[in-house]
Amino acid sequence: AAVLLAERLARPLDVPALAREVALTQNHLARRFRERFGMTIPRYLLLRRMEHARALLLGTSLPVGRIAQRVGLPDPHHFNKQFRRFVGLSPLAFRAG
Q1: Nearest-5° Cα angle at 15, 46 to 66
Q2: What's the chain's average pLDDT?
Q3: Residue 4: C-alpha distances to residues 18, 26, 54, 88 (Å)
Q4: For tag attachment on the chain, is the N or C end more exposed, with fewer CB atoms within 10 Å?
């Protein structure tokens, strides 16, 4: 499931479809995922999105709004809020470094 999430980083999370693809019920998938990774599927996905955003901020000159879209959080306000929550800085402050 983690590999499928990584491949679909920019897409909205669809737990029912993910569960069908790995041939598990949603509850069983959620339980096994938490056992393996120590967090929920949505939290894991958000963490991976923030890691990817950090890499894009440091490695590209893409505007923050474009990076937000690339990591699957197209609402710039929501992206900024989540980034600040995970990293402790705004995306622009992080990039400035």
Answers
A1: 40
A2: 94
A3: 8, 15, 21, 28
A4: C
